[in-house]
Amino acid sequence: MPFAEPGHSSTDAAVKRTVCVLLLNNYLGFNVFEPDLTKENAIKFSRFDEDNALSTCSRHPIVLEDKNWLTAEHYYSASIVMSSYLRANIEKAESGLKAAKMADPWYRFKIKNFKKLRAVLMTRALYTKVQMYDEVKDALMATGDQLIIETSLYDYYWGIGRDARGVNQLGLIWMDIRKKLTEQAA
Fold it and tell me: Using CA atoms, how far apart are residues 147 and 41, in angstroms rounded to an integer?
């Protein structure tokens, strides 16, 4: 009889295991043997997918700070660099992906409070995009109350990263915008 102590039946051992699992579940506040399907059932997108309305690189030009930006990514990438020459080249980039690539390796040339401002800058760009385009707003509202995840394997700030433990800041921004739009509609 596996797992049974000498002099006890396997039923007694099964009862002890069950009691231990129930106590552990009660202590932790969730079922340790029940999978968490929240991330599996989430709305997933890539920041650089030009065909997804929730992407920062989708072809939805925005107007912000008295300038026309080809994508939200163009605005964000140009806003985080200090060099006016680099900023001008980012503004002219053919796609959001190219704009992001131009801004990315220049870490030491980024604005000084970059880490504090990056979420604010991206929120401004995405909120402007939602206000300007009904199709983006409809795509966002169609997510209901589901978790929204940016699926980058390598970006642990904007996405969830390879091990799914990243910040998912882009998803959080979209969910905050969705919440604000829902509150405004009520």
Answer: 8
Q: Are 107 and 57 in contact (CB under 8 A)?
A: no
158 three-state secondary structure: coil
Summarised one tens digit per residue, pLDDT across range 43-76 is 999 999 999 999 999 999 999 999 999 999 999 9
CB 86 within 8 A of CB 151: no
Burial class of residue 138, CB neighbours in 10 A (0-12, 13-18, 19+):
exposed
pLDDT digits (tens, 9 = 90+) for 120-139: 999 999 999 999 999 999 99
Phi, psi angles (nearest 5°) of residue 64: -150, 140
Contacts of 7 (CB under 8 A, 6+ apart): none
> 82-91 as b/e, with b when 16 or more CB fall inside 10 Å?
eeeebbebbb
Q: Residue 19, SS3?
A: helix
What is the C-alpha separation between 91 and 178, in angstroms, rounded?
28
Q: How far is Cα 83 from Cα 66, in angstroms, rounded to an integer?
A: 19
**To which H or E segment does residue 100 belong?**
helix 96-103
